[in-house]
C-alpha cells in the first residue's frame, strides 16, 4: 500500500459513509473501516473531511483556435488549473478540419496534449467535415483509437446542416458512438445579428439577444427529434434554456436516451450580466460572452429543477478562456476598426471552478453531495465510456481522489486560480467548502492552494464504445 487516506467520509453517487481508502500503484485497492498501513505507507488524516472521486470535466477547449485567436490556457495551464479545482480528467475537443480524417485530427491534437497535460485527458471530436461518406466513415478510426464521442455544431459557419447531423447520428448508432450537440438555430442567429448590427446595436447585450432562449430552445427540440428519427442516443452539451430542458425531460419520460449537460455559469449567472457586467468586480459585459449565452432566471430555475429531477446528467465547464484584451475586440478589432458583439471571442474560464462551485451548492443544501459526485464524476464516466477506469471511488479504479474541507470558506479570485487567464467571471464568488488535496492516479497534484503535479504526467485515456438505449443516467 502506497497511500492510506484515513478517517474521512467517502462520498459516492449512491451513498456517504466513514471509511479509509487504500491506494497502491495508482489504483484504489481498499475501502473500509480501520485499514492498517504497511511499513512504507503514507498515511493522510482525513478526519472531518469528505473523500470524493476526482471530477471529470466533460467539456474543455484548451489551446483552441477560435474567433481569430487561441484560447488562453494550453494543455499545461488548463490541466494544472483543473487539478487545483479537484478535476482529474478533462475531455478536450479535437476540432476536425475540412477534409481532415478524424484520426489525423486526434493525433494532431495529442501531439500538443501529451507533453503538457498534468492530469489525464480524453477527447471528443468536434465534427468539422461530414460532407462526404468518406469523411463520415473516419468516425470508425476515431472509435478504434478510443475516441467514442462526437460533437456536432448546429451553429457557427463550420457547423453541420440537419442532413449531416442526421447522417452522423445514424453512423454513431451503427458503431456505438455518442453524438453530442451544440444546439442553436444558426439561421435565426444570423438574421438577428444582421438586424441588430444594422440598427447600430453592437454591445454584448445583443450577443444574448441574438442567441436568446428561443434560438437555443428551437434547436434543442429539433436535435431531439433528429435523434428520435435516427433511433439513437443524444447528448446536448451546455444546455442553458428552459424550452430545451422541458424537451429533454419529455423525451426522457417517453424513454428516449437523451442526456443533457449544463455548466456552472448557467446555474450561477443570468443574462443580466450582458447589461451591466459586474462593475464591483471590474467585469465588463463582454467578459461574459460565451455560446450559448447565459439566459434569464426562468431558464436558470428550470436547469436547477432538471438537476434535482435527474434530467440533467452532467455538469461540465466549456472552459474556453480569452484575455481581457481579446474581449476588447468587441469594442475595437485587431485591425483598429470598430468591433461589435460578433467580434468578441466566445468563451470563459471555469475549469478550476466547477467542482468547488457544485460542491459548495451541495454544502449549502441545494443538492446532496452524492448528486454533486454523480453530476461531476460518475455520470460523465458512464456516458463517455470511462467507467472501467474513472468516475467513482471503487476498488480497482484509478486513485483519482479529492479530499474536501467542508468548513473552509473560499472567495474566488483570479489571483488564487492556476490557469494563464488574466481574469475570471467568478471573481468574488463565495464558496462554502473547498478542495484541500487532489490525487491523480495516487500522485498528489494539489494541496492547500498549491499545484504539485508535473507537466506531462497526464495520460491519454481511451474510451469504450457507448451503448445507451434508455435514459438510465
Ligand atoms: O463560448 C464557447 N462555448 N466557446 C467554445 C465553443 C463552443 O461552442 O463550445
Ligand atoms: Zn458549444
Ligand atoms: Zn423524468
Ligand atoms: Zn464548448
From TrEMBL:
EC number from the UniProt entry: 3.5.2.2
Keywords of the record: Hydrolase, Metal-binding
GO CC annotations, alphabetized: cytoplasm
Residue numbers of N6-carboxylysine PTMs: 151
Free-text description of this protein's post-translational modifications in UniProt: Carbamylation allows a single lysine to coordinate two divalent metal cations.
Domain Amidohydrolase-related, residue spans: 50-428
Coiled coil: none
Essential cofactor(s): Zn(2+)
GO MF entry, a single one: dihydropyrimidinase activity
SUPFAM superfamilies in the record: Composite domain of metallo-dependent hydrolases (SSF51338), Metallo-dependent hydrolases (SSF51556)
Catalytic EC class: hydrolase
Family: Belongs to the metallo-dependent hydrolases superfamily. Hydantoinase/dihydropyrimidinase family.
Protein name: Dihydropyrimidinase
Organism: Zhenpiania hominis
Chain's gene name: hydA
Amino acid at each position: 500500500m502506497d497511500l492510506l487516506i484515513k478517517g474521512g467520509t467517502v462520498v459516492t453517487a449512491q451513498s456517504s459513509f466513514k471509511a479509509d481508502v487504500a491506494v497502491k500503484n495508482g489504483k484504489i485497492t481498499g475501502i473500509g473501516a480501520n485499514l492498517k498501513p504497511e511499513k512504507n505507507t503514507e498515511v493522510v488524516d482525513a478526519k472531518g473531511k469528505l473523500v470524493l472521486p476526482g471530477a471529470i470535466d466533460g467539456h474543455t477547449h484548451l489551446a483552441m483556435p477560435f474567433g481569430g485567436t487561441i484560447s488562453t490556457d494550453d494543455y499545461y495551464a488548463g490541466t494544472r488549473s483543473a487539478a487545483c479545482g479537484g478535476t482529474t480528467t478533462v475531455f478536450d475537443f479535437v476540432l476536425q478540419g475540412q477534409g481532415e480524417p478524424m484520426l489525423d485530427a486526434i493525433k494532431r491534437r495529442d501531439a500538443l496534449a501529451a507533453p503538457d497535460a498534468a492530469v489525464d485527458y480524453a477527447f471528443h471530436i468536434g465534427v468539422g467535415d461530414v460532407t462526404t461518406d468518406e469523411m463520415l466513415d473516419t468516425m470508425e478510426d476515431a472509435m478504434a483509437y478510443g475516441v467514442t464521442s462526437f460533437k456536432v455544431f448546429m451553429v457557427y459557419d463550420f457547423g453541420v446542416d440537419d442532413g449531416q447531423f442526421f447522417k452522423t447520428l445514424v453512423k454513431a448508432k451503427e458503431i456505438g458512438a455518442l453524438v453530442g450537440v451544440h444546439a442553436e438555430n444558426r439561421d435565426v442567429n444570423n438574421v438577428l445579428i444582421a438586424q441588430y448590427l444594422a440598427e447600430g446595436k453592437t454591445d454584448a447585450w445583443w450577443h444574448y439577444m441574438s442567441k436568446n432562449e428561443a434560438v437555443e430552445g428551437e434547436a434543442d427540440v429539433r436535435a431531439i427529434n433528429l435523434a428520435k428519427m435516427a433511433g439513437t442516443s443524444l447528448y446536448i452539451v451546455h444546455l442553458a434554456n428552459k424550452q430545451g430542458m422541458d424537451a429533454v425531460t419529455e423525451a426522457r419520460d417517453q424513454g428516449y436516451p437523451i442526456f443533457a449537460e449544463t455548466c456552472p455559469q448557467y446555474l450561477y449567472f443570468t443574462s443580466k450580466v450582458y447589461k451591466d457586467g459586474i462593475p464591483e468586480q471590474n467585469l465588463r459585459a463582454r467578459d461574459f460572452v460565451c455560446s450559448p449565452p447565459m439566459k434569464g432566471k426562468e431558464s436558470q430555475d428550470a436547469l436547477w429543477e432538471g438537476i434535482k429531477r435527474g434530467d440533467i446528467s452532467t455538469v461540465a465547464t466549456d472552459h474556453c478562456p480569452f484575455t481581457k484584451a481579446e474581449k476588447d475586440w468587441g469594442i475595437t478589432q485587431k485591425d483598429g476598426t470598430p468591433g461589435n458583439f460578433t467580434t468578441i471571442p466566445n468563451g470563459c474560464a471555469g475549469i478550476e471552478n466547477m467542482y468547488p462551485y457544485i460542491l459548495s451548492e451541495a454544502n449549502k443544501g441545494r443538492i446532496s453531495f452524492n448528486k454533486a459526485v454523480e453530476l461531476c464524476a460518475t455520470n460523465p464516466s458512464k456516458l463517455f465510456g470511462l467507467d472501467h477506469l474513472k468516475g467513482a471511488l471503487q476498488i480497482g479504479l484509478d486513485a483519482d481522489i479529492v479530499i474536501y474541507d467542508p468548513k473552509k470558506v473560499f472567495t474566488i479570485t483570479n489571483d488564487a486560480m492556476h490557469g494563464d487567464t488574466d481574469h475570471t467571471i467568478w471573481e468574488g464568488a463565495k464558496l462554502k467548502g473547498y478542495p484541500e488535496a487532489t490525487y491523480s492516479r495516487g500522485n498528489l497534484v494539489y494541496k492547500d492552494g498549491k499545484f504539485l503535479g508535473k507537466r506531462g504526467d497526464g495520460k491519454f485515456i481511451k474510451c469504450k464504445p457507448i451503448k445507451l438505449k434508455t435514459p438510465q443516467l
